[in-house]
Amino acid sequence: MIEKAADKTEISFDPLASKTERYEKGAAIRKAVPHASHQEYIAAKDREDPIDILIKTSIGRIESLLPIRYRRMMESPFAFFRGAAAIMAADLAKTPNTGIDLQLCGDCHLMNFGGFATPERKLVFDINDFDETFQGPWEWDVKRLAASFAIAGRWLKFADKSNKEFAWHVADSYKRHMLDYSKLSALQIWYADIDLAELIELGKDEEIKEFHQKRIKKAAEYTTHEKEFAKMTYQDGVRARIKDEPPLIFHSSGNDEKIIMKEAELVHKRYIESLPEDKQILLSRYSMHDFAIKVVGVGSVGTLCGISLLMSATGEPIFLQFKEARQSVLEQYVKSKKKYNQEGERIVMGQKLMQSASDIFLGWTNDDRGRFFYIRQLRDAKVKPVLEIMKEENLKDYAKACGWALARAHARSGDPSVLSGYIGDNNEFANAVSKFSLLYADQNELDYNKMIQAIKEGRLPVSAEI
């Protein structure tokens, strides 16, 4: 019988027990939740209409931006999947649950991984989106990530045999690297990262390696704030302003500009207070000059997101990105207690727990209207995956890399010995996850087609192409 996560008793483990004892405890869970049970996906009879879920998750968003959200989601079943974390969360809640909880990404799909610069300016490969992070069953992240490869593979016109293999490599890489982490100390795990240049060198495709090496070189040389300043701003008298590029970048309207700026400065002040003292001192050398709303991603469209421009007395810029922090889509489906009343703090702390190195300006804030936000630098030497150019072998390599990065992130808050004990050293778990991924890809296509029908019927508004 498949149990909801909310009905499953969370399993606790003695951190003082030996690695062997913890491994054996993980292995014992297989009797209650065998590997083969993870290959199942059957839509529940009481499954909520996916369109109703989309409409509910749009409540509280900027209404004028919703047509852009649905326009982006209708581009393909993969784009739909990226914006439908709430739908899959409801489905995962009715799949088998090992009872092993840890910090989840919550929206774990292949476009939420990539390269970025650490505070020491080293380029690493890691997860880079944590809007939905929460404590929950570890297998949910693995299944969503694996399913994203099956769905993306279909979008790229690969055969389902290959798509199943992509998903398999996610779970297999997760297994192999989790076993490696189980042999390390907690401190060694905390120090571990994945060097982006070394990761690219592992690939066999010389053409794609050369392409990514050029991107790494460009990212390493990229002086983000100065180049963005030249591209995104104009001089308005003595003050630099962010250029409007509607409907994707624009200034809020309807209120007196001075009132809006005063509100923004208050939100910024609260953000500064969330930072460690050394970063507070650093940012005290800058003042806010402007801010604008910026439409980002797929799942975030319609939430209040944007960029703020800070300037020093001598004219050096810093761009910060702010994103509205809403309740995690996982929260209603897990038994884990909510640790933070401030949703921005939830995201920041989840990110710091899962990432090998987080942005030095990562912090949280709120306004006086009950909205929460988190803030980070805008584009700090980021290297995003370019799916459109990937051949079959490239996507396999990328699946292995994402599985590795997820294992490292989970090993920080979870117990890698217990997880390795449950997964074991054979292929049964990877086989099950790969079968689940194809089944869920089928479900995702059905849901996508329902969304297209809802758009035709006028239930969901869409914008003209932009």
UniProtKB/TrEMBL annotation:
InterPro entries: DUF2252. It comes from the Bacteria. It holds the Pfam family DUF2252. PANTHER family: DUF2252 DOMAIN-CONTAINING PROTEIN. This is DUF2252 domain-containing protein. It comes from Flavobacterium panici.
